[in-house]
């Protein structure tokens, strides 16, 4: 069965560091993988951050382009979300990884 998993429930870091949030996915078919990351602040709806695809190129919302990156690895079935070198208190949120076939 196709699935997506985030095993780590919580991650902490000091301001200014780089943070990587892990997401693993499994495809039982040879379908293309479309992975999406979302950020949710308390009492708010999830906000789209970025996407990456096994074939083709995803997009990143303008407000996240400077510090948020991903690199889908279809061999390992991973799509980590990297917050580059300047993690901030305002980055504190719930992050969701989603898979679309």
TrEMBL record:
The keyword Signal applies. It holds the Pfam family V-set. Keywords: Adaptive immunity, Immunity, Immunoglobulin domain, Receptor, Signal, T cell receptor. GO terms for cellular component: T cell receptor complex. GO terms for biological process: adaptive immune response. Residues 1-101 form the Ig-like domain. Gene3D superfamilies: Immunoglobulins (2.60.40.10). PROSITE patterns: IG_LIKE. This is Ig-like domain-containing protein.
């Amino acid at each position: 069965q196709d699935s997506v998993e985030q095993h780590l429930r919580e991650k902490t870091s000091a301001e200014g560091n780089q943070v990587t949030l892990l997401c693993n996915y499994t495809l039982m078919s040879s379908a293309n993988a479309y992975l999406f990351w979302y950020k949710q602040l308390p009492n708010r709806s999830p906000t789209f951050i970025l996407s990456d695809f096994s074939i083709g190129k995803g997009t990143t919302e303008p407000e996240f382009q400077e510090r948020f990156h991903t690199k889908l690895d279809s061999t390992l079935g991973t799509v980590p979300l990297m917050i580059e070198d300047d993690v901030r208190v305002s980055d504190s949120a719930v992050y969701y990884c989603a898979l679309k076939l």
